[in-house]
Amino acid sequence: MASSSPIYLTHISTLSSCTSAVLLALPCAHVELLVATIIMVAAVTEVDAVHVAQQEAVKNVFCMEGGQGETSYMNNSQVQSRNLEMVVHVLKETLDTIRLPRRPEKLLTAADLGCSCGQNTLFVADAIVQHMTDLYTSRGHTPPEFCFYFSDLPSNDFNTLFHLLSGGRRRRRYFAAGVPGSFHDRLFPARSINAFTSTFSVHWLSQVPGEVMERGSPEYNRGKVFVHGATAATGAAYRRQFQSDLARVLRCRAAEMKRGGAMFLVCLGRPSSTAPTDQGSVRFLFGAMFQDSWHDLVREVRG
Question: Alpha-carbon distance 146 to 37, whole Å?
């Protein structure tokens, strides 16, 4: 194990005024080990038909606002764009860990999980293609062809993304394909992807923990739609759900990634010293927004 490549785990606390992020760059050799570790601490529970139905509903309706209108993701993702620019050097360091064979492959594959439909995913794709082209050239090799997969839930606005890929004067340097599906499930054939990226996506849960919606349950999150300020039992339920979800994400990628590949993840996070019920400044961005919207809907129903 002494000769193994390192796992990069960096806490970024100054990405913006309202968010913090955990950035993970995981060489392929360690993915299965990390999966095993997470699975050991993840709660193993029976998933009943109601929870399965809820999970399917999330896949069908949960997505960023499509199109190019005033409220679209494309016109409201500047914070994510600035954060990506701040960590692109770590993306390049991650790509440097990819082990190329003596006779380098003529085709490199990469996938962005949770790509949405704006310019940010194209920024990531361009950065990967450019860096790997430079890496090949610096080693005296002819640059390979690239195939880049853009993956998100079926409800994502892939049409807008495809227009961006093919429109204007932008010269695309890779073959592109859309892959609808959840990153909590398998998306690609075994050992088929050299590099995975996912930015500001994997912190989203696959479903609301069932027990927090059950009246009478110790984990019941009464009157709330967010974990901040909830009871310790509710926080533990959300933690178990995240551990289970992340284990699934990594287990699927471990099967799909080529040997010697790498994974680059950026997601919202919190200091490890705090409980799940203390979401820090993130609560102002997500908690207050969701909670206020929920209360507005309740008031409308009550008239």
Answer: 33
Q: Which residues make beta-bridge pairs with 177?
A: 149
147-190 pLDDT, tens digit per residue, is 999 999 988 889 888 988 887 666 789 999 999 999 999 999 99
User: Using H for helix, E for strand and C for coil, what is the string for 218-245?
Assistant: CCCCCCCCCCCCCCHHHHHHHHHHHHHH
Tens-digit pLDDT profile for residues 34-89: 443 333 333 334 445 555 555 565 665 565 555 566 655 665 555 676 777 888 99
Q: Do 114 and 70 contact (CB within 8 A), yes or no?
A: no
| SS3 at position 201 | coil
Contact between 121 and 115 under an 8 Å Cβ cutoff? The reply is yes
Burial class (CB in 10 A: 0-12, 13-18, 19+), 87: buried
What is this structure's pTM? 0.76
